[in-house]
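Predict the structure of ABC transporter ATP-binding protein.
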Amino acid sequence: MAELILEAVDLEYSYPDGTNALRKVNLQVQQGEKLAILGSNGAGKSTLFMQFNGIFRPNSGSIKYQGQDISYKSKELIELRKKVGIVFQDPDSQLFSASVYQDISFGPLNLGLSEEKVAERVKRAMKDTETTDLEDKPTHLLSYGQKKRVSIAGVLAMGPEVIIFDEPTAGLDPRHAREFMQLLEKLSIEGKTIILSTHDVDLAYSWSDQMAIMYRGEIIAHGKPGELLMRSEIVERADLTLPWLIEMHTELVKKRLAVSVYPFAENEGGFA
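Done. Here is the predicted structure for ABC transporter ATP-binding protein.
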């Protein structure tokens, strides 16, 4: 049985303006898992992510990494962020060095690694994200898609065990979105734990092996993607659409051209 690597326990968080962003959030993430978190804008996805590596501190409840409550002391937070990396939706929030190479190498250099080891990590991260040809380019001259890939490379170069992606394919053209998903699959095969938020239910349905659905700061469902997305009350409450594969299956079942593979659906408000 896989071990827990990250866990949110009774997590509560409100912003200074009084906005209640997280309400009694409980979520367990298994080591090596591919977890997609779905929810509309304002559901609390990004806020939860910033709890996972200590950017935000909960008002109550806790975050555990490998079974231990995380510490908010500076030294311990640095160690945590080596292990839990976040790629934010807006790449400009992560890029601040003059050139692509300098930006990607910033994190590994601050780990105290040798120049040779840093260069090795940077080269591999650039290769994985197809940014090798951008090595000497000023970051402010990059296109949005290039900035996105460079920000991902900067996190990969840190060598984290858990990588969190906030709306990773937003703003990418279809080719680069597809290549990004191939990169995620490669990282998963290497044993990384990957968490991503997305509005793309088709992407989440086809990629993840576990899914959490958030609505107004709460996790209202957590489980296998196919099972969750066949429950109409959850889909409607979270303002989600159905993956096209489920929509097609539903229509075929209605026309008696297919048999439902979800026997619980009729009893639980499903679509079959």
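The domain at 4-241 is CATH 3.40.50.300 (Rossmann fold).
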